[in-house]
Amino acid sequence: MPTYNKLVRDKIPQIIEQSGKRFSTKILNDQDYIKYLQQKSYEELDEYCAAKTNEDAVEELADLLEIIHSLAHHHGSSIEEVEKVREKKAEKRGGFDEKIFLIEVED
Fold it and tell me: Which pTM value belongs to this model?
């Protein structure tokens, strides 16, 4: 029986059960939940970076966005509030649309 020890989406146990396989899970406390959400964000970012097609990249971006939703909720916020903060930062400092790569700044 393979061991995963990782955070999974809420419906994964149902999907495994429907396949007829046995499994074990536990509910994480808040400290472990945030730790494993952070780990999952790195896993999904790695998968995004390894994506070979636009379709795969968008799939991984959707996974990252789901994690951001969960992290925002855990921190007492919402994706809408995160978006407002993003908009304010973009207004003040810009986005990344112009592809500017900073090489150096003179002291």
Answer: 0.87
